[in-house]
Amino acid sequence: MMDVYKEALQAYQRIREHVVKTPVALSRFLSEQLKAEIYLKNEHVQHTGSFKLRGAVNKILSLSDDQRKAGVLAASTGNHGLAVAFAAQKFGVRAQVIAPAKASPRKLGAIRAMGVEVETVSGDCLAAELVAKELAKKQDCVFISPYNDPEVVAGQGTIGIELDEQVPGLDAVFVAVGGGGMIAGIGGVMKRLNDKVRVVGCWPKNSRALYECLKVGRIMEVPETDTISDATTGGLEPGSITFELCEQLIDDFVLVSEREIRESMTIVAREEGWI
Fold first, then answer.
1. Residues with Cβ within 8 Å of residue 182, at least 6 apart in sequence
2. How far apart are alpha carbons 61 and 55 in whole angstroms?
């Protein structure tokens, strides 16, 4: 198993000049409601609007000159594709993105606006990942997985480094989960820095592939239905490194209904002024 903490420290030194060190804010409303100190890590102010940029930048900066010349290929519903497109444009690397046909047109349009070729395929996120992986083999270029990649996990782990510095001694950290790259990165770092912290994985009830895989102890296909949390949808590709990492690192599991997601978005918009 990869040493997440060690690799995240290396990633932090590598990417810190290229990404936003996102602020952490105490939510007075949530703290009063829940009788605890509730902090929100504002990854939505990252350059591309999500944490995905950390992993994409770390991956591209980890490539050799020959690999960068050959270009990169990614699969994404939007946020990972935007991150790869931004990083590729910044460092002069050619990039392609494979996306499910049902992905957000707005996000796919933003990726194309960065000069990146986008191809849509039928099926879900996992189907797009498998198509992209096979295409990368044919083109002899690097495939950048949204989660199943040590450099991507390490890049997302830099959130944990910042959290420990910004709010030392956290009792628990709640992390949205799709393929598990972010929670594996954050969990791997924070468990090393604070052995009392509990890492809580949060899934939409409608899309909880990794949750079901962890319950049975193996990677399998899990049926999904539509969710407003489109950035956490999709299954787990066979052999994903995040499965074993999440087995070791996640302490508690939470499933969230579509109603709860919408209500929470409304609360954050009304009380914090964030969309």
1. 51, 147, 156, 159, 175, 176
2. 10
Based on the number of CB atoms within 10 Å of its own CB, is 209 exposed (0-12), middle (13-18) or buried (19 or more)? Answer: buried
Q: Record the tokens describing residue 267, joined without a space.
A: 């609360």
Measured at the CA of 181, the angle between CA 189 and CA 86, to 5 degrees, comes to 105
> What is the DSSP-derived secondary structure letter of residue 45?
G
One-letter identity of residue 16: R
Residue type (1 letter), 23: P
Decide if 84 contacts 74 (C-beta within 8 A). yes
Output phi, psi for 81, to 5 deg.
Answer: -60, -40
Per-residue model confidence as pLDDT tens digits over 1-43? 799 999 999 999 999 999 999 999 999 999 999 999 999 999 9
Residues 6+ apart with CB under 8 A from 68: 60, 91, 92, 93
Cα–Cα dist 124/179, whole Å: 13
Distances (CA, A) of 51 to 81, 84, 89, 193, 217: 12, 12, 18, 21, 28
* pTM metric for this prediction: 0.95
Model pLDDT for residues 26-36, shown as the tens digit of each residue: 999 999 999 99
Determine the Cα–Cα distance for residues 14 and 69; give it in Å rounded to an integer. Answer: 20
CA distance 117 to 93: 12
- In whole angstroms, give the CA distance from residue 120 to residue 166: 40
